[in-house]
Amino acid sequence: MHAVAEVRANVGGASPHQITIHSQTPTPGLAHASSLQTNRMDLDQRLVDAAIDQMDRRTRTEAAAVYLNDGSILTSVCLDNLNAAATLCAETGAICQAYTLGASVTASVFVCKWESSSGFSILAPCGICQERLMLWGPDVQVGVADLEAASGWSARTLRELNPFYWGKHFADGDTWPSSAVHAS
């Protein structure tokens, strides 16, 4: 099996192996990611619901969704493979598609469900996905499990998850490495 990314402007009709864009406004073309920091879409229940919707539509146990700076949502699922070294996290498809579109990610959420449960959990992105999201800076929000919150989750920034982020060493006098530094 191989990954195919196809962009669709609505939720309905998505077939397997697709990244779905849920959009209220057109997604920008191929502008560089750092030039698109105009709007701020915060992690909210709408983003969580988009990930759950993708997970249910694909009959999967995990999925992810990201907000782009224009309000669009990209969703994706993990790439399973017999060779575990070839698998990819659920967030990877949406992150790569955002980068391909030249769009900025402002928030990301990973949802999963356990076979023995009818509910779902929100977990922080793994370290590799955190590194992938770092391209868009320390203020990208991610969902984390939060047992004290009524919803069972809350939003945290990458800065909060990584107060001692190693990449700050390469920040050229700033507090966080630029997109150009990340892409070098």
CATH topology: Cytidine Deaminase, domain 2
Number of separate domains:
1
The number of helical runs is: 5
- Taking Cα atoms only, what radius of gyration do you get, to the nearest Å? 16 Å
The count of strands amounts to 7
Characterize the overall form: globular
List the helices and strands and how they pair.
Layout: E1 20-22, H1 45-57, E2 62-68, E3 73-76, H2 90-101, E4 105-112, E5 121-123, H3 127-133, E6 141-145, E7 153-157, H4 158-161, H5 179-183
Parallel strand pairs: 4-6
Antiparallel strand pairs: 1-3, 2-3, 2-4, 4-5, 6-7
Task: Give a verbal description of the structure.
With 184 residues, the chain is an alpha+beta fold. The chain has a single domain (20-183), classed as Cytidine Deaminase, domain 2 (3-Layer(aba) Sandwich). It is 22% helix and 19% strand. The protein is built from 5 helices and 7 strands. Strands 1, 2, 3, 4, 5, 6 and 7 form a 7-stranded mixed beta sheet that branches. Strand 6 (141-145) and strand 7 form a beta hairpin. 33% of the residues are buried. The model is unreliable at 1-38 (pLDDT under 50).
Can you give keywords for this protein?
184 residues, alpha+beta, Cytidine Deaminase, domain 2
Concise account of the structure shown:
The protein is α+β, with helices and mostly antiparallel strands and 184 residues long.
